[in-house]
Amino acid sequence: MNLKTLLLSATLVALPFSALAQTTYSQRHDINARKANQQSRIHQGARSGQLTPHETAHLEHQEHGINREERGMRAQDNGHLTSQDRHTLARQQNTESRRVYNDKHNLRTDPGVPPAAR
């Protein structure tokens, strides 16, 4: 093997790893867009009475925990998220999304919201 082939091989092996260590604009935007969408769904459910005050507080608390964990992950990697971090956050956001759906579609409603608003 000559030196040129060896350097090319080393570059091709190292390139994917350096790309995985960075959080791109679109990945940050996707995480932020999902956060905004979740918040919108929670607020809509609270306004319409589909979510009780207890369910709303619980969902907000869970969202806060995910945001706190993301900040911690970014602090560990100089403001970036690793591939594993993004996977973990996506899994947590998926779980939270299912929780929002289930809470909005159960038979509990907020008695303080008039039926016309529902």
Which class of secondary structure composition applies to the elements? mainly alpha
Percent in helix: over 70%
Tell me the number of helical segments per DSSP (H or I, 4 or more residues long): 4
**Biggest sheet architecture:** none
- N-end to C-end Cα span: 72 Å
Mean pLDDT: 84
The total strand number stands at 0
Describe the protein's topology.
Layout: H1 3-20, H2 25-48, H3 53-76, H4 83-104
Protein architecture, described:
The protein is mainly alpha-helical. The protein has one domain. The protein has 4 helices and no strands. It has helices at 3-20, 25-48, 53-76, 83-104. Helix 2 (25-48) packs parallel to helix 4 (83-104). The longest helix is centred in the N-terminal third of the chain and has 24 residues, at 25-48.
